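Lab notebook, bench 4. We co-purified these components, and the gel suggests they stay together. Before we commit to crystallization screens, I want a quick structural picture of the whole thing.
Request: model the full complex, all chains together.
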Amino acid sequence: MQLKHGLISVDDHVQEPPTLWTERLSKARWGDRIPRLERARDGRERWLLDGEVLLDGHSAKAGALMADRNREPERWEEVPPAAYDPGERLKAMDEAGIDYSVLYPTVAGLAGETFGRLRDPELELACVAAYNDWLIEEWAGASERFVPQCLVPLWPPEAAAREIERAVSRGHRGVVFPSLPMHLRPLPHISGPEYDPVWRTCTELNVPLCLHAGASRELQYEPSANLSAALARALDAVTRPVSSVFVISLYSFSRILLRHPRLRIVLAESALSWGMLYMEWADHQFEHDGLKREGYDLKPSEMFHRQCYFTSWFDEVAPFLEFVGADHILWSTKFPLATSTWPRTRETVERCLKGVSPEARAKVLWQNAASLYRL
Amino acid sequence: MEIKYGLISADSHAAFDRDAFTARMSASRWGERIPQVVEIERAGARLDRWRVYGKIADNSVCNCPALMGEPFPTYPDRWEQVPKTAYDPRARLSALDTDGVDAEVLFPNPPGGTFFEFGDAAFELDVVRAYNDALGEWTRASDRYWPLAIVPYLSPPAIIAREIERARALGHRGVNVLGQMPKSLPHLTDPYWDPLWSVCQDLAMPVHFHGSAGLRAGASVRKWEGYTPRQAHSASTATSAVTPAQIIPQLIFSGVTERFARLKCVFAEAGIGGLNYVIAACDHEWESRRLWKEGIRTRPSETIRRQMYVNFWFEAEGIKLRHHIGIDNIMWESDFPHVASFYPRSWESVERVLRGVPAEDRRKLLYENALRVYQIDAAPATNH
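Here is the predicted assembly.
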């Protein structure tokens, strides 16, 4: 591993190109159900999957690269190349001072949730596998500075485990898992032992399980319908990371973390404030409700400090450093979403890490990520 | 009023006497629908329960575990078990003295603080009036009670505004509001509700969102059958903690706080730690998306300093960040007599949470901010 800038961004998004699935899925078998970009009557180009419109009817999510951040591309030719072209992305990373970039999807869902809504597990697997192959061939193949993470078919868990094994053997280094599968389609609750094969496989292969905010719309309070698109999107961006509190709470109190002590969990797009708030609240409630007597070996904060990471892109680090712990904070740029710190990535890093010791700074900006992703 | 102890609870719960509604509502008009305590039989046992609009409530006849002794938490099954200190304002003063609390802001207790669920606007309005009358009377027992009025949601906004004015005249100090309006009505931030915000602003009645504030969307992860009741309770507390982060951005980005720049909003039983996030995240999006061009002229952190308040009771780590959160925007709360309350040892928890906090900050957190938010004239504390 080579570091020029001293920053590994653990949460960026690739924009899938229109040909990704049409070239890799059998037209004879899947026909019009294949995810594809379609031109609507008004000239807009929007993503369709099995009859469902994706990305709110836009061609991409790349607000940070648009002349007006409050707009998203309405035709593919409007999509800025740094969103979908690995070569252009590398140039943007050099400009922003990013050495390595850990990749999440966009059309497949910011949290990898899109295909989880399909009721057909075979189509789900075909879409997921195509993405996983494409990311290795087009991005990881282009530069070792891209850290690929695979998608997962949600059910059955054995199929999920098999796809993780296949993807990791091809070079994937993390698993993008939509944290609440039962919110996406009728599936057993994530808390039960049914999903143990997934957690076991991640543990055995030593790849982090990455739970990105936005896996369920149910955890966000919808804005009023009469707001402008710009304000509605700003509200969406602010309320999305709130879900990290629900998710870490669920994975802790349901004992997933206790049953799988070597499973490592990244709460992507979580913001550091929530790490502090969650641990203080959860520990207090744990004591107040007397859960020690209910067979928990560890308090919620102890589970967290053994296995979890919170990520930030705009929080000041110093106030949370002691309680959340320098070993459990990761940095990200969220390129190229509208919420990204691009193009002020470098100055944001300096502002947010003010007052942080050089040792802690190195952990937050790259060391933790390097060890988590074995770079 | 006199500040004797130097501690004001910005979130406590006033219980109702069993005849609070039957004594105030027309029997000929509402009959059996009037909220009242009735005896029922369940699994061979005789229990007392509130019955509202003919429906038996699921919960205990009085939510007052802090007054019920061991084993904790115990909830009364029969009305005779309910301590007078829960519902009798004169008797309750001794509990305030025991706990060393000067005054308390009064939120609802069974039969509850909303009555829109039955879809009967006339009934709702009459119950709300009875509720506001009953709690308004507490202020005649003592100036240490600062009750919050409730809202007849199904009535036209002009009628709602008139009820808030009436409640203010009765002695109410604020209004308790849902974070998400009933399904048949416009969104919380729709201009439909402007008359409500307008009257609250004009009368200097802070608007209160309590706990999860009745949020349906954004409220919780789907239930898991594998939890014991205690585990389910622990796991669900996230719901309350994130309430300010679900609601404050809605109020700011919809322009409610621009239109009503003197409206104050208090978040009860949601803690203080979440406000860090709201400040940082709203400023980040406002700046990078240049939302002043969308009509949101004020930087969100300024709006929050000016209009938003949060309450603490256990967050020692949160209190270390009091100057990030806003030293003038934090109040103490006890939640008395609910399960979260430290009664009768509130001061022990106060000392634990405020260890090392200088006197000037302590005064703000424990009572000065509350006096300012609720516009109460008070003689200075002698001991604290």
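The first strand of chain A starts at residue 8 and ends at 13. Worth comparing against the SEC data before the next meeting. The CA atoms of residues 47 and 53 of chain A lie 6 Å apart.
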